[in-house]
Amino acid sequence: MSMDVKPLVLVVEDEDAISNFISAILNANGYQVMKTNTGKEGLSMATSYSPDVILLDLGLPDIDGVEVLRSIRGWSKTPVVVVSARGHEHEKVEALDLGADDYIVKPFGTSELLARIRTALRHSPKAMGTESNGIEKITIGELEIDYSKRTVFLSGEKVHLTPIEYKILTLLSKNAGKVLTHDYIMREIWGLYAGDSHTLRVNMANLRRKIEANPGAPKYIVTEMGIGYRMVER
Ligand code: CA
């Protein structure tokens, strides 16, 4: 990462305690922070300052966070991590389907916050132009995926996957660290109108049987209950 320009994070959050906590962590870890407690001001700051990442609370006093997101996505691909309350799965899925990059649930800790920001930055349109393209191989723990040869090895042993299982693994691993919704995965693998989540679950179960030592407690692909799946980063 370049040392001269710190990534700018816009924090749109109306709870001062949370907003201050986020700012302190980000400032201490090499980010610049701008913050606001309303959706309206958040939108105008997103336009004026072109932040690298936006951290967006979904429960704002003036405009609903989902509406703020919808508006941002009308003109910008800036990564957005939504901040949500525990249990609001429907709201999170809606935000992710509207183009949020990830979500974080209150209360969250330092390492989780930093991981979400780092992943969002890595998958940002700016970063995609450089480091993310052209990756031929990825190693996560004992799992090695070679995209150019279309091979998968686990602890040095070749893993035999069906074309669908390989596509799912490729999609998740190229987005390692980031949550992908059920709908998103199904659209990417089966196309726009392939709406049967049972097929995805069956394929995921088979894939996990092949790459996980204990499919009941997966180490590589974790389930985000009610939302989708996330491949770990390393
Ligand atoms: Ca709030």
What can you see in these coordinates?
This protein has two domains: 8-124, Rossmann fold; 135-231, Orthogonal Bundle (Arc Repressor Mutant, subunit A), CATH 1.10.10.10. The protein has a five-stranded parallel sheet, with helices on both faces. It has helices at residues 16-28, 39-49, 65-73, 89-97, 110-122, 125-132, 163-174, 182-190, 197-211; strands spanning 8-12, 32-36, 53-57, 80-85, 102-106, 137-140, 143-146, 151-154, 157-158, 179-181, 221-224, 228-231. The mean pLDDT is 90. α2 (39-49) runs parallel beside α3 and α7 (163-174) crosses α9. The chain has 234 residues and is α/β, with parallel strands linked by helices. The radius of gyration is 18 Å and the shape is globular. The chain contains nine helices and twelve strands. β7 and β8 form a beta hairpin. The structure holds calcium ion. Calcium ion binds at residues 14-15, 57, 59-60.
Question: What key attributes describe this structure?
Answer:
234 residues; alpha/beta; Rossmann fold; Arc Repressor Mutant, subunit A; 2 domains; five-stranded parallel β-sheet; four-stranded antiparallel β-sheet; 9 helices; 12 strands; 42% helix; binds calcium ion
Task: Determine the N-to-C terminus distance.
Answer: 19 Å
The CATH architecture of the largest domain: 3-Layer(aba) Sandwich
Helix content: 40-55%
CATH C-level name of the largest domain: Alpha Beta
Biggest sheet descriptor: 5 strands, parallel
Class derived from helix and strand content:
alpha/beta
Radius of gyration: 18 Å
Question: How many H/I helices?
Answer: 9
Low-confidence stretches: none
Classified in CATH, the superfamily of the largest domain is Response regulator
Please state the average pLDDT score. 90
Kindly report the spatial arrangement of strands forming the biggest sheet.
2-1-3-4-5
Apparent shape:
globular
**Ligand kinds:** calcium ion
SSE order in H/E notation?
Answer: EHEHEHEHEHHEEEEHEHHEE
Total number of beta strands: 12
Number of domains: 2
The CATH topology of the largest domain is Rossmann fold
